[in-house]
């Protein structure tokens, strides 16, 4: 309906402001985008698929935040089905499908079918099993989920309670949930969607020496049909459902599942590596599931690469909006008629957003390095030899922890830096915040898994201390040996000399600190024999320090090798410096106590960081976020639009697209009626409660 | 879905039951929970709360079991039904304001009448003349008109002077014309405006004969009192879904040259003569200044409780939840460790537990100061002459000689620190709950989302710190001039100045007094550093904002530590609590102070308030020992915050520890999605079986 507000304009022009921002930087967006987003044809793929999704009404995101939980799942399922149809229509490959899911920006109810379920069958099924299941999986004649986590056990897989007891007589496994806490829980696609599931259960086999008793062989995967293929009702002896609403992941049906002595045939056990003799029930391991470690490293590389895009989204939105948004005049302004300042010109805003901008690039180069290492050594990995990535594998849980924490906290930092409008649905950071916040606690809790890294480093330090003579066997060993030989004479480094930043010294400082913290941990645990539990906080910090070193090293190395044009390359160096120096400043104490950096350098840091941000990064900020090439479709944000029409879009969403404005309410407290003119007296509402 | 079969109903969680685990936790500690609760809230208030809780529970409309499932429309509709019912219950039971406050806390969601009660009535009362009270306030009190407070705009929030809506005086017919010249002039975020209010107090730039007089409040009718449709040339609606607060109809509002009579400009503090058009300010608005201080002090006080709710949930759940066997445990000991025994969980949760008390005592301290100050002002009444020259911020007051200025600056800094601590703390609590923290049934996520706006409203937490810095700089200048100290701030600055040439040696690990003094030292050091940058090195204001933020934080942390310490040495505390509890409170005080000191260690080190060795010892020894000593009392300490299960609406935080049973019940019995069967195959267009697609 037209009204007097149709002709109103904002008091300042966002489009012109962003254009001016772009005009004043000489960075080539095209060049840098290609540099960042060429792996597997990412950019080309994105450009091809965005218009297709934008043309499908079902993929319009405008109403999502208004919907209830069941409605969001309903929509999610409709989109999942529609995507399958698009796959057929356009002949999309697996990567195309994944790109479409990424752009849709919600967890599809089919997601686990196309990821964990199919991967597990492929990696852990015998040749025969693969031959049987693969055609059904590919054609979606069945839909699978992956049921590992339980109500009472997540990260501690060995503690799972669900059992699979082998019955020699009938040659069947009996799957059973002995406790309420044995209920499968959180498993995606399981709640309402799946017909089948991989069920991870304790494999219990008859104890040969002890009649009637059973021995556990630890958790193993079973492929189990859980719902009727026609009626889609749960099979007898299985209770399965959706676990209810969550902080995010609204479109996904995370599920629970319980078994009551449910029988499955002998070949339900995925048996590429674990075999149970059908007649005797004896257990045999075959081959080494090293491939699994390889693909785990690949999964973690993907998590890091995804984290950078998520963070880039938050940074893109906040950089564009705070460039446009004006608030207060400069207190030092000469007169009263001065215009209000762009919010991004406030150092208090820069110090929150610009280090995160630098972080997106830091994550990028480490993700790239992880992929490259995995791909380069893939041939030997497939043969079961993964010595070449053993180290990366051990350290990758620390990277997962640090990078997802950066991204999860970064989204919220960016949201708050945008002030009041950051809280609104038009910010584009509500859904992503809700969804991404699952990351710090899934696939290994970010605090828990840092123990693995620390344990690895303590082991490496122990062997380096024992034997300094041999040649270094890997980069960590090399670092530790160097550290041990220099330990008594090394003096702390000047990372800033006469106001100049020494890039080489920065690297040395990160390396020294990581080695020294490793040594301290080794000393506390191995020499002083301190309790593991009393060291956990220290070990968490060690893991982060080590991961930070990896990020800084990969960033520096990539810049050395890159062939970017000089104007872009110099800005990239500034971003490297900002990331490194900001990291040092944020944990200055650990650089002092490890004797890694001189205190005169540390004292000079805060001002240098402010200068870097204001003079070197700020002028290029808008173009630097443009380089991440995030289409408006995925941003789904009034504040972060490419064209800067912030206020027009906010108003459009509120006024023209808001279903609440289509209803008039009866606000008189003495009347029971809620919707004006409904005459209902609030009865339908009470019925829902 | 078919009903839950009996074999499922018979299942129990494995291992020790949640209720047994919490009972064991409570047995480990002898802290008198009832006594501590009464000390925090008073016996009378606790009693009253239970009575109100019973009344609310008896009304079906307040049932919370579907809250986590519903969409925006349903959430709002239910919230409106609840707001209405609450009014009925209030009238029926003759509840006073305190009772209503308690009821709102228990219901724990923002309601559509919220701004009518919270801002519309208050503004009419404080800024209206007796004539205007009769015209507007009397009707508003009876809910014959329902209002809101429309200040923030699409383009302007904290910077009130930049508002774009205009109110132009029209001498011919003695009216004001309210107008929105740009899209960015649209009122935005206004609570209760979107669908509920039929009146608004609109802040608009007063223009008389082409001259601007700054923003002023005008009472404007926006909807018809019968049809509830917007009036002509008024465009009003709800701004759409948000991160949280979805039960509230935050609204937008635009005017196309709407005329209102002269009497609609609230005229207690400013007045336009209807005959001459002459503008005058009969009384200065220093009372508003007091109101803001009061609101911010309240935010500080409630921040302790907000955080305590998250901590209660996380501590109880982490006491029930077990994960991995201890690496150092003997092989015979195979049972898993309660998560709360992990030091890396303790360093997150027990430090926050200490913060809840720190914030509570600080809030109490602020309220006490505020009341003392109000009393003094009322008695004096004479300070008016001086007040009339005062502007809107503390920087323009007479620093160093004015208790109110100190109180106001302190409240700005503390509001920023306390609400950030609470908001971030809630998210820490949610993550400490591991995977299950992500479920809505944890009760933390939605509460966090609803609390978040507190970090931006009543002064953005970053913006506010400039005011604190401005005040501290002014105070430092007066100290350098040689003025005598008149309040806490000038006292610590003077102490620092007197010892600047001698340095300090604080026994932060051995003496509580020294610990507080170290915080004072660091705050004073940073103040004089900032002053040097500004006055000697003539740095641009804008370049110093990050320093100012840190300065404000340091000053506020000093106030918190000092208030906590003062509360523990106060005789009412030592008389109302057992000596065991007082001793435990001292440990919480030390944990809060030392953990803060360790987190901000580079500033303590740089200022000379603590040595590197002391900081290392604090981290590796003192803090670890405190965690170990406080750990056995954790569950009882959160019990003392006395949250009812009904209020928290959390599976993980249940008082009885039946975490898993409750999660399973909510998932399987309360979950509407489980009543639906779907068609899973992509080849079929059917989505939900037996339902027509709404898409």
UniProtKB/TrEMBL annotation, chain A:
Binding positions for FAD per the UniProt entry: 149, 188
Keywords from the UniProt entry: FAD, Fatty acid metabolism, Flavoprotein, Lipid metabolism, Oxidoreductase, Peroxisome
Domain Acyl-coenzyme A oxidase N-terminal: residue ranges: 29-143
Any single Gene Ontology cellular-component annotation: peroxisome
Active-site residues, Swiss-Prot/TrEMBL: 443
Domain Acyl-CoA oxidase C-alpha1: 293-458
Source superkingdom: Eukaryota
InterPro entries in UniProt: ACOX_C_alpha1 (IPR055060), Acyl-CoA_ox_N (IPR029320), Acyl-CoA_Oxase/DH_mid-dom_sf (IPR046373), Acyl-CoA_oxidase (IPR012258), Acyl-CoA_oxidase_C (IPR002655), AcylCo_DH-like_C (IPR036250), AcylCoA_DH/ox_N_sf (IPR037069), AcylCoA_DH/oxidase_NM_dom_sf (IPR009100)
The protein's required cofactors: FAD
Protein name stated in the entry: Acyl-coenzyme A oxidase
Lineage, opening ranks: Eukaryota, Fungi, Dikarya, Ascomycota, Pezizomycotina
From TrEMBL, chain B:
Record has Flavoprotein as a keyword: yes
Protein keywords: FAD, Fatty acid metabolism, Flavoprotein, Lipid metabolism, Oxidoreductase, Peroxisome
Single annotated GO MF: acyl-CoA oxidase activity
Residues of the Acyl-CoA oxidase C-terminal domain: 513-675
Cofactor(s) of this protein: FAD
Pfam families reported for this sequence: ACOX, ACOX_C_alpha1, Acyl-CoA_dh_M, Acyl-CoA_ox_N
Domain Acyl-CoA oxidase/dehydrogenase middle residue range list: 148-258
GO cellular component: peroxisome
Pathway(s) served: Lipid metabolism; peroxisomal fatty acid beta-oxidation
The protein's name in its UniProt record: Acyl-coenzyme A oxidase
BP GO annotations: fatty acid beta-oxidation using acyl-CoA oxidase; lipid homeostasis
Acyl-CoA oxidase C-alpha1 domain span: 289-473
Region (Disordered): 378-399
Reactions catalysed: a 2,3-saturated acyl-CoA + O2 = a (2E)-enoyl-CoA + H2O2
Residue ranges of domain Acyl-coenzyme A oxidase N-terminal in the record: 33-146
Residues binding FAD, per UniProt: 152, 191
Family: Belongs to the acyl-CoA oxidase family.
